[in-house]
Amino acid sequence: MSNIAVLTSGGDAPGMNATVMSVARNAAYYGMPLIGVKRGYNGLLGRTNNFDDNFVRLDLDTVLNIADMPGTYLRTARCDEFKDPQVREKSAQILRDLDISGLVVVGGDGSFQGAMRLCELGIPCIGIPGTIDNDLSYTEVTLGYDTALNVCVDTVRAIRATSRSHDRPHVVEVMGRHCGDLALYTAEATGAEVVVVPEKRWSVDEIAAQCNRQLDLGNPRMTVVVAEGCWESMAPFDVYKFLKPHGVQVFPGEPMTTERLTQILKYKCNGAEFRHTVVGYTQRGLAPTARDSIFAFEAGALAINLLHKGISNQAIGMKNGKIFHMPMADALAVKRHFNRKLHHLLNAL
C-alpha cells in the first residue's frame, strides 16, 4: 500500500497534534503507512538527501502519545521558497520518489495555496484549516480557534478582576492579523466595553471618546480589547507629535502599538491610569479544548477517507456543527462576513 504523508504549516495551532493522531489512526485502519513531513513545506524542499532530516515515519505508539500535546510535533514554519514553480516541481518529485499517494496539509490560507499547487502536479492533497485567527471563511470555525478564544477570555476575565480592584482601565491585545474574531468574541464573552478590529475603520480620537464616555458613566475600570492587526485600519495618527510634549521617550515615525495607545489614552482621558497587556503566544501554546480535539479527530478521519476513495483537492470544514468538505479553490474563494452588528452593539455605550 502506498504511503500517506501529513504536514503542519504556517502558525502553530492547538489541535495540530490531535489531527496528526487522527490521520495516523485512520491511515492504519486502511493499512496505509504514514510519513510526517518536518517543518511544513520546508521538509519537501530536498535540502539534504537524509530522510531523517526532513521526514519521520509515524506509528501509532508515537502519535497516541502526542495527541494532547500543545504545539506541533512535526514542527512548522513559513516557506516562501515554495512559491517558486521549480521548487514545487522538485517537491512533487520527492513525494513521488517516496511512493506517497496522498498528502494531508494542516494550516491556513497560504498552506492551502501550496496544497492546490501540488494537486496541479498530480499529488492528491486534502486541507484541514489549522489557524487560531478563524480567518478561513468557508468554515464556521478553524482548528485552534476555540482554544485561543478561551485563553483570551480567561485572560481578560482575570484582568477585569484586578481592574475592578484598582479602578483602572486596561487595554488588552489579542491575536488576529487580518481577522478580528478573537477580539470581537472575547469582548462579547467578557463584557469588555470597547473592541477594535482590522475590519472596521477607526481613529484614536474615537476610542478616546468611547473611554471618556465610560468614565462619565462612572466606569473607571473599562476594558479595551484590540486585535493585533487593527493598526492597519487606524486613521493616521502621529504618535511622536502627540507623546513628545508629554515627556514620553518616543521617536519620529514610530508606529502605533498597544503600549503607545495605552499611553495616548491616558493623556486623552484626563490622566486615567490605563494599563496594557499583550496576551501573545499563550493563545497558541495550550492543549486543545474538547471542541478543537473533536474537530481534529473528525477532520483527520475524513481526510484519510477521502484519499482512500481517490478524492483530493478538498478543504475540510465545519458547518452547522457538522464536518464537511468542498473543493479547495471554492473554499478559498468564499468571501468573509464580518459581524458588524455585533461590533456596533459592543461599542454602543
How do the helices and strands line up, and which of them pair or pack?
Blueprint: E1 3-8, H1 16-29, E2 34-37, H2 51-54, E3 55-58, H3 60-66, H4 85-97, E4 100-107, H5 109-120, E5 125-129, H6 145-166, E6 170-174, H7 181-190, E7 194-196, H8 204-216, E8 223-227, H9 239-243, H10 258-268, E9 275-278, H11 290-308, E10 314-319, E11 322-327, H12 328-333, H13 340-346
Parallel strand pairs: 1-2, 1-4, 4-5, 5-10, 6-8, 6-9, 7-8
Antiparallel strand pairs: 2-3, 10-11
Task: Summarize this structure as a short list of keywords or feature phrases.
16% strand; alpha/beta; 349 residues; elongated; four-stranded parallel β-sheet; seven-stranded mixed β-sheet; 13 helices
Structural summary, described in words:
It is a single chain. Helix 6 (145-166) packs across helix 7. The chain starts with a strand and ends with a helix. The longest helix has 22 residues, at 145-166. Strand 1 (3-8), helix 1 and strand 2 form a beta-alpha-beta unit. The strands form two sheets. Strands 3-2-1-4-5-10-11 form a seven-stranded mixed sheet, sandwiched between helices. The model has no long low-confidence stretch (mean pLDDT 96). By secondary structure, the protein is α/β, with parallel strands linked by helices. The protein is 41% helix and 16% strand. The chain is built from 13 helices and eleven strands. It is elongated.
